[in-house]
Amino acid sequence: MFDSVRNGRPGTAMMSFAGQLSDDDIAAVIDFIREAFIKGLDSNTYYHTPENGWDDHQRYAAAFPFALGEIALDIPWDELTEDQRRGKQLFMSACITCHDRAEVKDNGAIWDPRAVSYPRSGFDHRHQEIDARSGATLYARHDQAPALTGLSKQEQLGESLFQDNCAFCHAADGSGRNWIGSFLEPHPRDLTNPVTRAGMTHDRLRTAIESGLPGTTMPAWKSILDEDEIDAIIAYISRAFHLPEQSQDSR
Fold first, then answer.
1. What is the C-alpha to C-alpha distance for residues 131 and 60, in angstroms, rounded to an integer?
2. What is the largest CA-CA distance in the chain?
3. By the 8 A CB rule, do 67 and 46 touch?
4. How far is CA 100 from CA 82, 89, 91, 130, in A?
5. What domains appear along the chain, each with residue ranges and CATH number?
6. Tens digit of pLDDT per residue, the chain (251 long)?
7. Measured between alpha carbons, how far is 54 from 126 in angstroms, rounded to an integer?
């Protein structure tokens, strides 16, 4: 545990804290984790407890049968009682982000994942109303991809790869100001920032994508994406966020 906190875990989002915490601080963090989460099982380490921000969790009771898999989520609405319909609506608006689709009768096609900033639609379980808050969250606008026309096939591939993978941290609009990006430290690079764009050559971008950035949550993608896919992402970033054209020799 000490090694993971001090040096990070290559290939994951676990960054090194050697530059932020002393060895004594790291040891104290580990002692707390072991006592609170592993040995003590303190009440605030459980989800859905008042100590963890879930006051009056019973107000979600109508959704419990869906969260627990007692009622399949894909049962048609007209086959549910009025209380069950209310519970399903509550589950769909407030619980599904974490509980996924719970239990279904027909698994159907594999869900198509999409990089979207959590919490979905700005939902906050501490909100007093028992539903999702509106999409007018301050993060939601950064989950909107640039509207581009006339993309080449390479740029279309890059758009798909960026929005399905990179947007989770860098935001769909490249700003890094979505929910996840705002809480990562250091923040993901703002690809729309003029200073960032001015210094971002294609070679530097390729190196960052292929090998990651030590000391940050930017992982290496060279074992996941092939060279053509990385080139496509670079082409899309250049088109969407207007990076300067650079020769392959510039760094």
1. 10
2. 67
3. no
4. 23, 14, 10, 18
5. 2-41 (no CATH), 50-99 (no CATH), 140-241 (1.10.760.10)
6. 999 999 888 877 788 888 888 999 999 999 988 888 888 777 667 778 887 777 888 889 999 999 999 999 999 999 999 999 999 999 988 888 788 888 998 887 765 555 555 555 555 555 555 444 444 567 777 888 999 999 999 999 999 999 999 999 999 999 999 888 888 888 899 999 999 888 888 999 999 999 999 888 899 999 999 999 999 999 999 999 987 765 333 33
7. 7
